[in-house]
Amino acid sequence: MKYAREFKVEAVRLLEEGEKTAADLAKELGVKRTLLYRWKDQLRERGQEYFQKGPGRPRKDQESEISRLRRELEEVKEERDILKKAAAYFARDLK
């Protein structure tokens, strides 16, 4: 699951405040405790820019668009191949 940069930064801030234990905070936020510590380390090492959206799996709507375009491309290739064969057939008759 992907989390927004703001969510991660706020989770780390709450963790560092220390008002709640990491386990309680993780349960409240619906994430694993180890994930909170990983975000904390990443934030310390690389800064907030590390949490920017980067490469990864496309969103669901992008996946469906990619699938649709791939199917369409296959159809167009098939039509192209049929037209090539038809053109070759008719060109042979003209000779």
- The level of helicity is over 70%
Q: Helical element count?
A: 4
Number of domains: 2
C-alpha Rg, in Å? 26 Å
Which parts are unreliable, with pLDDT below 50 for 5 consecutive residues or more?
A: none
Query: Mean of residue pLDDT?
Result: 84
Structural classification:
mainly alpha
Protein architecture, described:
The protein is mainly alpha-helical and 95 residues long. It has two domains: 1-56, no CATH class; 58-95. Helix content is 74%, strand content 0%. It has four helices and no strands. The chain has helices at 5-17, 22-29, 33-46, 60-94. Helix 1 (5-17) packs across helix 3 (33-46). The longest helix has 35 residues, at 60-94. It is rod-shaped and about 90 Å long. The relative contact order is 0.08. The model has no long low-confidence stretch (mean pLDDT 84).
